[in-house]
Specification:
It is built from no helices and 6 strands. By secondary structure, the protein is an all-beta fold. It has one domain.
């Protein structure tokens, strides 16, 4: 049997160029598989990022992110120096 899990990893603060603060949440996807002997394996997959209010966030590099919203069709750049930022 195989299933997917999406597990919360961490959250941190990031700021846009105007100094507005956003909470970014990080999730790790896992592929969970149980073989015929009952042994379960968890294989990490992609990480996903979103704001605390559900907006999708693109990871550019550690400390640099981008949000796409109807108001920011070209993307809103965010930066973070938070030690939890990935």
């Amino acid at each position: 049997m195989t299933r997917h899990e999406n597990v919360f990893v961490t959250r941190f603060q990031a700021q846009d160029p105007l100094g507005r603060s956003y909470t970014i949440e990080v999730f790790q996807q896992y592929l969970v598989s149980t073989d015929l002997d009952g042994v379960t394996s968890r294989i990490p997959g992609l990480r996903s990022f979103r704001t605390s209010d559900g907006k999708s966030v693109n990871w550019l590099e550690r400390g640099r992110y981008q949000i796409f919203t109807p108001e920011h069709t070209g993307g809103l750049d965010l930066e973070s120096t938070d030690p939890n930022a990935v």
